[in-house]
Amino acid sequence: MNGAAELWKLAFGDSDEFINNYLDFAAAGDCFYALQVNGKVVSFLNLIPLSYSLNGKSFKGLYLFGVATDPAFRGEGFSRKLLRDSLTGCEADFVVTVPASESLFGFYGLQGFTTVVSRSYETIRSGDKYPDRKTMLHWLPADFFQLCSLYRATSGDRFQWTDNYLHLIADEYEWMLFRIDDTDYFCIFQIADKQITIQDSNAPVEWLLLAFREKGYADSEIRMATFGDDRSGEPFYAISFLNDALKDIFTGRSVLNMAMDS
Known about the structure:
The protein is an alpha+beta fold. Helices cover 29% and strands 34% of the residues. The protein is built from eight helices and twelve strands.
């Protein structure tokens, strides 16, 4: 669409390669919604298909992502209109989003996003101490989509992204995935300035420490993202239920289980 790539660049500053790859991905998946003025895109949002698994049952969901409006057209209610129109008649059970700033939780609250999960980071290693273990661990090279299958099979009750979307985002933001030896343990992480940030893993801390030591990251600080229902960390997920039955299922159930393992 005319002006879509330019507006994305202005709003998010992503690389041209990512923008073009994403817009191709979005067009193929029919998940890009835009409002045009005089043939030019002035506002858009994206609704990425995902699912939520609970007790063997899968619920259809959407991830609200990449919401932007041209500065010259802000204040006109375009984002609200796009969100309302794109969700009208959809078959999803829920919509989840990760607002870019804490101030946006108020905006999404007005649109029916009422549940918040907070995120904080816990340092799991500093200094040069490791637990003792006779057997050294090794990372096995694995195809990305094989790792996605492992992630899906072992992740329990949580959001599950499509493989293609995981691949796209992981490639742009330099997410790394590995599997430890012949176990079902996986880890998704990023490295920046000698700091390792673990975004998701089902491995015990001892195994993670040993695995990172094996790869030569002895001098790196390692921190792990943790999630909670309180506001002790930074606000992270905002969720809107479109299916009253699904909402009833989670009445009295910790919303933390919607983001992480039970």
